[in-house]
Design brief:
The complex is a heterodimer.
Chain A (H helix, E strand, L loop, with lengths): L1 E8 L2 E6 L3 E6 L13 E7 L2 E7 H4 L10 E5 L7 E3 L1 E9 L16 E7 L2 E6 L1 H13 L1
Parallel strand pairs in A: 2-10, 5-7
Antiparallel strand pairs in A: 1-2, 1-8, 3-6, 4-5, 6-7, 9-10
Chain B lengths: L4 H22 L11 H39 L17 H170 L4 H148 L9
The chains are: A mainly beta, B mainly alpha.
Chain lengths: 140, 424
């Protein structure tokens, strides 16, 4: 059993284990970061910590600029990144035994596995992959 | 010297006898004659003398007789141009008397014939001029007859025209009466119109009052609707607040779940509570959304009601204006109807005057008709007289023609007499 926070990326439903989430925050004061890369929207003050806000849809290459006012603050294990997302509303309880690897031809980016929920498919985000991509970007 | 024929005979005889005696006396003195022949010679000489004298005398006598006979013949044939002439003689006799008498007879006959001829000429001339005059008179009579005829026809036409005029004027009189009755009907209609217009004006006034009342009510309804919509907007604001609270609750529930998960086994119950709270927040949000939808649709309907109300008010306004115009129109109608009534009344008066005039004119036309009839009768009498005159003229012309013929024939007869010797 695992608790998964669901959110939307494009037309797909993505999921993230709540173990990776520090907190969900609403309408944070966003600070502009000079010379920031395209996926770095800005920075916020989170209980005294300065955290970078990453535009997750843009990073994963989803078209459209629909962004939610809710942001996900990850745990320090994931460098305390802040993701802008959409449709953050529910936390669902899933049996992780039913998690399947992405089938061949599955072209969604950064998917660790897929799992069915109420006749829809939740793509479980590969947080390591996202972190790796960010490292690649900012290492340059 | 006049010697009658019988004496001439005697004288001749005496001459013969005397010559015989003289010869007898002379013969013996004549040489060459034998005595025995002397007697014979003297007889012969006497015979010769007798023969000479006798033949001369008888020749003269018979010549004169022939001349007389031929003159008588000539006179019988009508030739009076020549006088009767007998041989000239130193000794006129009864023949000469007879010739003279015949000449006198011929002269008197000639003068008689000449007179007759002159008279006949004059009669012929007179009859010719009379004929011309009678022809002229006849022509004049015919002219008079024709003119009278025309006058008679004209009188008939006049009579017909007068009759036609009478008929037409009677029609005119009838028309005038019709006009009078029409004018009265118009006046009545105008009265009716006046009454209707007044009642219409009253009704328009009362309808104006009703419209004003309805209008004020509609305006207050519109105001109420505005208030109602403002109240709805307040509700909408409350719903927004509820929505915000529901979202916050949802977020708190989510974070609570996350915190509960971090608490591990101890946080399990808390997680359940958090989930319930989240569900409540969700259903609150759903309800709030429903309320928002309801409020929006009510708002929309309210706006529609408001616009309908505004429209109704506009229409009421225009109705009030129309009613004002109607009122104005009714007062116009009233004024016009009054004018029409007074005009129709004056038409009625005028037609009464016309009716009396028409009666007078009809009487005058009847009088004219009577006069025209008298004229026609008189003209017919004149026409008859003229025809009689014309007949008399024709008879006279006939008589004149006969007279002319008679004078012509008389002239013809008289022309048989030749009064003057032909020039050739």
């Amino acid at each position: 059993m695992a608790l998964i926070l669901t959110y939307s990326l494009g037309n797909d439903l993505y999921g993230l284990e709540i173990d990776a989430i520090q907190e969900i925050i609403e309408n944070p004061v966003l600070h502009y970061v000079p010379r920031a890369e395209g996926v770095l929207t800005g920075s916020i003050n989170f209980h005294g910590q300065i955290l970078a806000v990453i535009d997750l849809p843009k990073l994963l290459g989803f078209a459209g600029n629909q962004r939610d006012h809710r942001h996900l603050v990850l745990t320090s294990e994931y460098r305390s990144l802040v993701f802008t997302t959409c449709g953050v509303e529910r936390i669902v309880n899933l049996e992780m035994e039913f998690l399947q690897p992405p089938p061949d031809g599955h072209d969604r980016p950064a998917v660790r596995g897929i799992i069915d929920f109420n006749e829809t498919t939740i793509n479980l985000l590969d947080t390591d992959e996202v972190t790796k991509q960010l490292e690649d970007i900012f290492a340059e | 010297m006049r010697i009658e024929i019988s004496y001439k005979f005697i004288i001749g005889f005496i001459i013969v006898v005397v010559s015989g005696i003289l010869v007898n006396l002379v013969v013996p003195y004549i040489e060459g004659i034998e005595p025995e022949f002397r007697q014979l010679f003297s007889i012969l000489c006497s015979l010769l003398v007798g023969l000479i004298i006798g033949s001369a005398f008888s020749r003269a006598f018979s010549g004169n007789i022939r001349r007389l006979t031929s003159a008588g013949d000539r006179i019988r044939q009508g030739d009076l141009s020549e006088d009767v002439k007998v041989g000239d003689s130193h000794f006129p006799d009864e023949i000469s008397d007879l010739a003279k008498a015949m000449n006198q007879f011929q002269a008197s006959l000639r003068s008689l014939v000449g007179d007759i001829r002159n008279i006949a000429f004059r009669v012929a001339n007179s009859s010719q001029s009379l004929s011309g005059t009678s022809q002229e008179m006849s022509a004049s009579a015919q002219e008079v007859a024709r003119t009278t005829d025309q006058i008679s026809k004209g009188a008939e036409t006049q009579a017909e025209m007068v009759e036609e005029s009478t008929r037409l004027f009677k029609e005119v009189a009838i028309s005038i009466k019709l006009v009078a009755s029409s004018a009265k009907a118009v006046a009545d209609s105008a009265d009716l119109t006046l009454e209707t217009a007044r009642s219409g004006s009253d009704m328009a006034g009362s309808s104006l009052d009703s419209i004003r009342q309805v209008l004020s009510e509609a305006e207050s309804s519109g105001q109420q609707m505005v208030n109602f919509i403002a109240q709805l907007q307040k509700i909408s604001k409350f719903v927004e607040v509820i929505n915000g609270i529901a979202q916050k609750t949802n977020l708190l529930a989510l974070n609570a779940t996350i915190e509960a998960a971090r608490a591990g086994e101890y946080g399990h119950g808390f997680a359940v509570v958090a989930e319930e709270i989240r569900k409540l927040a969700d259903s609150s949000k759903t309800s709030a959304d429903e309320i928002t939808g309801l409020v929006e649709s009510i708002c929309k309907e309210g706006e529609q009601v408001q616009s309908s109300m505004a429209q109704v008010i506009d229409e009421m306004e225009s109705g009030r204006e129309a009613d004002d115009r109607t009122n104005q129109a009714f007062s116009d109608i009233t004024r016009n109807a009054e004018g029409t009534r007074s005009k129709a009344s004056s038409i009625a008066e005028l037609t009464e005057q016309q009716t009396s005039s028409a009666e007078r004119i009809t009487r005058a036309i009847d009088e004219i008709d009577r006069v025209v009839s008298d004229n026609a009768a008189a003209t017919e009498q004149v026409s008859a007289a003229t025809q009689e005159q014309s007949a008399a003229m024709e008879e006279m012309a006939q008589s004149v023609k006969e007279l002319s013929n008679m004078s012509e024939s008389m002239l013809q007869i008289v022309k048989q007499f030749k009064l003057v010797k032909d020039q050739d």
